[in-house]
Write a structure and sequence with these properties.
By secondary structure, the chain is an alpha+beta fold. The protein is about 35% helix and about 20% strand.
């Protein structure tokens, strides 16, 4: 999943009020195994998440739990992935 903050619609103060909740939710998702990895983007304010989900619906439900998603302060693009087969047996 790739996110981007709506910095043109919300102030730094608006984000500062929500980010502690966002950070706590991300920690909970990581501890629970739904969130595998997260990186902050260098090109804009946002992040790249690697989620573990059984289905696209499950991934969408996980994203919906994020405070920035609930407050519609960021965009969230979910990109379904599948395993790379090039390292398997020949």
């Amino acid at each position: 999943m790739i996110t981007q903050r709506y910095s043109d619609q919300f102030s730094d103060e608006d984000f500062a009020a929500v980010l502690p909740q966002e950070t706590e939710t991300v920690r909970e998702l990581y501890a629970g195994g739904a969130l595998r990895q997260i990186w902050l983007r260098e090109d804009t304010r946002g992040a790249c998440f690697l989620l573990e989900a059984e289905s696209l619906h499950d991934a969408e439900t996980t994203v919906a739990a994020l405070p920035l998603a609930q407050k519609e302060m960021s965009s969230f693009q979910i990109i379904p992935l599948r395993p790379y087969g090039g390292f398997g047996p020949r």
